[in-house]
């Protein structure tokens, strides 16, 4: 009964894909009321004390037509090629783990996984997202320790004493310096379930 109440307040209740027990009830009402979709809807509304139309005549007619053709209320299996996602999931996750273990920063891009597994990049991304993985980028932050406080204070005093030097300094937004090698933050993507930092 709860799903019926929720259904009434939704905007697209006429296109509602009925639950199996509701379909069965509608089918019985259809045949009890002289093979009439209108009478079946009216009887359903009376039975459940509903004032608005829950289903359109087209929905009921199509349901009856499907039942008479297939002798079943279950949806037919979809045609087309079956999804390979479940078969590919262990391969993609294993390759991700291997590539992350080989890299110092834990970096593994969807392109590198696609190249290693011969699975299209879009499929790799879909599989990783279905496993709850998200992309995280390296974010560089300056570490300030207690020992730095004295140095910063001395530098500030020196600048104040030599303020004529400030005209000769070229100021820019940011600069990153690395003692153990450059980190290309743009291309470094880490796939993980939660933020690794």
Write the layout of secondary structure elements.
Layout: H1 2-9, H2 20-32, H3 37-47, H4 57-70, H5 85-102, H6 110-117, H7 121-130, E1 134-137, H8 146-161, E2 189-192
Antiparallel strand pairs: 1-2
Helix pairs in contact: 2-3, 3-4, 5-6, 5-7, 6-7
Condensed summary:
With 197 residues, this protein is mainly alpha-helical.
Describe it:
This protein is mainly alpha-helical and 197 residues long. Among the domains are: 2-70, no CATH class; 85-141 and 182-192, Arc Repressor Mutant, subunit A. The chain has helices spanning 2-9, 20-32, 37-47, 57-70, 85-102, 110-117, 121-130, 146-161, and strands at 134-137, 189-192. Helix 3 packs across helix 4 (57-70), helix 5 crosses helix 7 (121-130) and helix 6 packs across helix 7 (121-130). The chain is elongated and about 100 Å long. Residues 1-16 have low confidence and may be disordered.
The proportion of strand residues reads under 5%
User: Any idea what the radius of gyration is?
Assistant: 32 Å
Q: Which geometry do the CA atoms define?
A: elongated
Mean pLDDT: 79
- State the end-to-end CA separation: 47 Å
SSE class: mainly alpha
Total strand segments = 2
- Strand arrangement within the widest β-sheet reads 1-2
Q: Provide the succession of SSEs.
A: HHHHHHHEHE
Number of helices: 8
Q: Bin the helical content.
A: 40-55%
Runs in which pLDDT lies below 50 for 5 or more consecutive residues are: 1-16
Major sheet size, sense and barrel closure: 2 strands, antiparallel
Oligomeric assembly: single chain
């Amino acid at each position: 009964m709860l799903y019926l109440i929720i259904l009434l307040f939704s905007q697209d209740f006429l296109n509602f894909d009925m639950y199996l027990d509701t379909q069965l009830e509608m089918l019985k009402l259809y045949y009890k009321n002289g093979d009439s979709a209108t009478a079946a809807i009216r009887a359903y509304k009376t039975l459940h004390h509903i004032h608005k139309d829950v289903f359109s005549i087209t929905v009921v007619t199509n349901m009856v037509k499907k039942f008479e053709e297939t002798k079943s209320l279950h949806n037919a299996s979809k045609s087309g090629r079956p999804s390979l996602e479940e078969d590919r999931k262990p391969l993609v996750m294993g390759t991700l783990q291997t590539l992350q273990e080989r890299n110092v920063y834990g970096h593994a891009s969807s392109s590198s996984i696609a190249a290693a597994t011969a699975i299209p990049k879009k499929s790799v991304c879909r599989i990783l997202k279905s496993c709850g993985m998200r992309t995280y980028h390296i974010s560089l932050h300056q570490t300030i320790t207690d020992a730095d406080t004295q140095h910063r204070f001395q530098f500030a005093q020196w600048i104040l004493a030599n303020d004529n030097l400030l005209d000769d300094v070229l100021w820019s937004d940011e600069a990153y310096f690395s003692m153990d090698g450059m980190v290309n933050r743009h291309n470094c993507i880490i796939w993980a379930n939660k933020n690794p930092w």
